[in-house]
Each structure stands twice: as C-alpha cells, then as structure tokens.
Amino acid sequence: MAASKDPREPRPCSIADTLALVGEKYSLLVLREVCLGNGRFDQLVRNIGAPRDILATRLRRLVEGGILTKRAYSERPQRFEYRPTQAGLELEPVLMTLMAWGDRHLRKEDERPMVIEHACGNELLPVVTCSACGDPVRHHELSAHPQTPGWTVTGPAVA
Is residue 3 part of a domain? Predict the structure, then answer.
C-alpha cells in the first residue's frame, strides 16, 4: 500500500485490509463451517443462521477474495459447494485462536460448544509462537516497526 498523502487518512494496516475481506461476522462463520466440511449453501444457512441473501453476498465476496472456491455438485438443479483455498486454510488458526479466546473469556469450561482435537489425539489449545525461536508470543516482548514512509508507531510523522 502506498504512503498516505492526506494526514487525515488512517494508518496503512494489513489488519484493516484483512478485516475488510473477512471481518464481518458471517464471513468468519462461513469460514468456520467450510473448514469443518460444511460447504453446501443449505448447510451454511442452517449452521450459521444468516439470511440467505446476506449469506450469498458473503460467499461471493469470499470467492472473489480468494478465500473460498466454488464448485458445482449438481447440474439440475444447479447447486454449489464451497471449499477453502490455501489462503482460506491459512485463516483456520485465526479461527482456532478466536474460539480459544471465547472459551476462556466468555464461557464456563463445561459450556464450550466444541472441542477441536489435534492429530496427536489431544485437545488443540492454540499458541502463537515466533517462527524464528519457537517461543510463545507475549505482548511485553514485541516491538512494532512501521514500514510505511511517513508513519511512526504513534501515528503520522510530523513534517
């Protein structure tokens, strides 16, 4: 993204760009269902609870954004199923982390609606780690380094 010329423009940000594509409630729930193997429209309507027109719009946007692929599974009547692309699969750890946060902060342990099991046979408890050293990521060990010209951590650089 190019440097902002207007000082009223918000900070260039990959988080904001990602949220523009998947940051709406039903979009993430579509991704949850598709990653669970429920990619048919009627399954999505039932499991998500989204109105059909809104769901169709979200699906179209996720396909256009390269998060999902659309494949016909019936010609008469014409029906489609949705599957995650590699980009969509790369968002699955984000979903797992959101789920774990919700389980910890919004529910009692015995009220969790789903448990994800890893191939090792244990419950998945996602942890974000540094790819270089393998240590868990902790807020106090992070430092930001803006790469967009004209921006500092605190905001636009003073001219």
Answer: no
